[in-house]
Amino acid sequence: MSAASRYHEVHARSLQDPEGFWAEAARAIDWIEPAKKVFDPTMGAYGRWFAGAVVNTCYNALDRHVAAGRGDQLALIHDSPLTNSVTRITYAEMLREVQTLAAIMQDFGVGKGDRVILYMPMVPEAMVAMLACARIGAVHSVVFGGFAAKELATRIDDATPKLVLSASCGIEPGRIVQYKPLLDQAIELSDNRPKACIILQRPEHVCELKPGRDYDWAALRKSALANGKLAACVPVLATDPLYVLYTSGTTGKPKGVVRDNGGHLVALKWSMEYLYGIKPGEVWWCGSDIGWVVGHSYIIYGPLIHGATSVMYEGKPVGTPDAGAFWRVIADHKAVALFTAPTAFRAIRKEDPEGTLLRQYDLSQFRTLFLAGERADPPTVEWAEQQLKVPVIDHWWQTETGWCIAGNPVGLGLLPVKHGSPTVPMPGYQVDIVDEAAKPVPANTMGSIVIKLPMPPGCLPTLWQQEDRFKESYLSEFPGYYKTSDAGFKDEDGYVFVMGRTDDIINVAGHRLSTGGMEEILASHPDVAECAVLGIKDAIKGEVPCGFLVLKAGVARSPSVIEKEIVALVRDKLGPVAAFKLAITVGRLPKTRSGKILRGTIKKIADGEQWSMPATIEDPKVLEEIGEALKSRV
Ligand code: COA
Ligand code: AMP
User: Fold this and answer.
1) Is the pLDDT of residue 2 over 70?
2) CATH class of 509-631
3) Which of helix, strand or coil describes residue 487?
4) Which of 125, 322, 419, 422 would give a disulfide with 378, using CB separation of 3.0 to 4.6 Å?
5) SS3 for 596?
6) Which percentage of the chain shows pLDDT scores above 90?
């Protein structure tokens, strides 16, 4: 390993003296009152970081940079090939926008601890809205635009927001996604209806506003600016929630991952400098969506807390207009690093395997490519290395952790890259590989990947109003550890290899989806007796869902019609992001003698992998039938 990297010394210290380590990292944050205890093991499910400290996240993301004379530096570059526009907003301008929207929200009665749902496309106002919530101590919950009304309704019911902030539309290549009908339907479906919605009218599609409930964003802004309404930062506890972000669990009911203020500030600031190697003032581009954790941490909070310039991109890696889009954005804005999902690179590689478009741009200032969200397959990493001639860094994390669990710390000095591995645990993370009895296994042996408690700052302290579910889902199976639900191994150098999930979560184009949740939707169709959904290999998206249906006895309608209805049902209930396009009717499903559906074996058959007949199978012939059914479809 590289002798030049400070990694080993830094990581060892973070585990030997966690309080000392994080207290030092916390000096990079402006606190209103310092922590009474850097770590209080008596609080929460496994202890809390920066107990008793008082802080404001928005102050750290905006005000302090303006106060330090960086007001004229760009906070945000919004680049939208979908609307043919580039918008540049300085820190001073962003602060003014955030102060104004925060004051507007206060006028709607939103205060500390109140929840606000944001159902927004990738527009600058989404950043303004998140920071405005942080400014007044409100808890935002962003819902990804590709989710359908029912998913939005579930989140509204769980978060019980006082206010919803949304827009008239999102824009996907070749189609306008009207948000308002989805929002209206979601509110209709929910039991806890928010009293007011603030709607951003985009010129691409103007929607109707419901009198008495919907308010025009621009009109409110104009009047607040005319009246000089500006909200001050509201002090909150470091342990107070900053946001709730829903993510797929093993059932249809998503988990509300809670992020606190203090630990999040400290962890993100540390990561910008030491993991990503970014300096304040540099241009950083995270090509995710604000609806995902990656977008929260590295489009919005991380870069701004660090004083960098964040690029927000409303477009795709291909088709907007071509596979050179990423290189154009990097060159135009002089981004020094990009963080995206491997799926985006697979899509670019497919369209432009020789990298011809790449060579049309000046990428001389570009230093590092970071990949996460799904396993970075070695061929994609190798291709990116050859094309870009910069380090390509895979790193592994989850919505729950909010920042990287294992990565390669550019700012501490790079460690040698091993393809297929996101490298090594970051400070504060003791990553172990254990067997079913929670015993660590030897190097190069597969097992469950777990994190020794306590988790470092930034990681979730609980699930929103579901502490029991938090303990049961993450802390109970391996006592003393947090269960990641990922499986993998560590090699003799301590490099972590993350190979797949141990639950029913699949990863589709870097998006986390629950097959259990999809099965609930399939099972709700009146003609379906039984079903199984599993992820099958896809050259671009990594995995795509595939549903198997057994129809009820006596159903006379054509299976192909029912399959089409099922595809439409998933799109309607879960949303287009599920990319559920394949439903296959079969006579029966392969099961064990105890009645468990053999999903793993079906997956191997679908993926064309070697498989062996499970000893416990009820009737081996069923697997032949599945193979036949798949032949014509995959
Ligand atoms: N609002 C509404 N619909 C959306 C949406 C949004 N914000 N985002 C995606 N969708 C729709 C897409 O239009 C598509 O609809 P379609 O079935 O009508 O074509 C569907 O959801 C699936 O979207 P996606 O999985 O993104 O596929 P795609 O074919 O549009 O693009 C990639 C494929 C690989 C280019 C794209 O998935 C990509 O860039 N992925 C990057 C992933 C990423 O950043 N992940 C975040 C974690 S780091
Ligand atoms: P999400 O919560 O949406 O960020 O998804 C988290 C899950 O994505 C993890 O539990 C992993 O299964 C997978 N994942 C994310 N990053 C990586 C990576 N670098 N390598 C392997 N799997 C990853």
Assistant:
1) no
2) alpha beta
3) strand
4) 419
5) coil
6) 96
Q: Which amino acid is at 36?
A: K
Q: Which atom of ligand 2 is nearest to the CA of 501?
A: 12
Per-residue pLDDT, averaged over 179-196, amounts to 96
* Number of C-beta neighbours around residue 109 at 10 A: 11
Domain spans of the chain, in order of start: 7-315+395-488, 509-631
Q: Which CATH superfamily is domain 7-315+395-488 in?
A: ANL, N-terminal domain (3.40.50.12780)
pLDDT tens-digit map of 103-155: 999 999 999 999 999 999 999 999 999 999 999 999 999 999 999 999 999 99
Instruction: Characterize the bridge pairing of strands 37-40 and 48-51.
Output: antiparallel
Question: Cis before residue 181, ω within 30 degrees of 0?
Answer: no
Residue in the block written with tokens 């269960």: 483
- Stated as kind and residue range, the H or E segment containing 601 is helix 599-606
Q: Are 606 and 536 in contact (CB under 8 A)?
A: yes
Percent of the chain with pLDDT over 70: 99
Contact 516, 250 (CB under 8 A): yes
Q: Bridge partners of 247? A: 255
| Rounded Cα–Cα distance for residues 40 and 52 (Å) | 9
Question: Tell me, what's the pLDDT at 3?
Answer: 55
Q: Residue type at 362?
A: D
Answer yes or no: is the C-beta of 170 below 6 A from any ligand 1 atom: yes
Q: Does residue 215 carry a pLDDT above 70?
A: yes
3-state secondary structure of 142: strand
* Nearest ligand 2 atom, CA 505: 12
User: What is the per-residue pLDDT across 58-77, written as a single tens digit (0 to 9) for each?
Assistant: 999 999 999 999 999 999 99
From 143, 172, 292, 403, the mutation candidate for ligand 1 (largest count of ligand atoms within 8 A of CB) is: 172
pTM: 0.96
pLDDT of residue 625: 92
Residue 508 CB less than 6 A away from ligand 2: no
Question: Residue 253: its pLDDT value, please?
Answer: 80
Give Rg (Cα) of the chain. Answer: 24
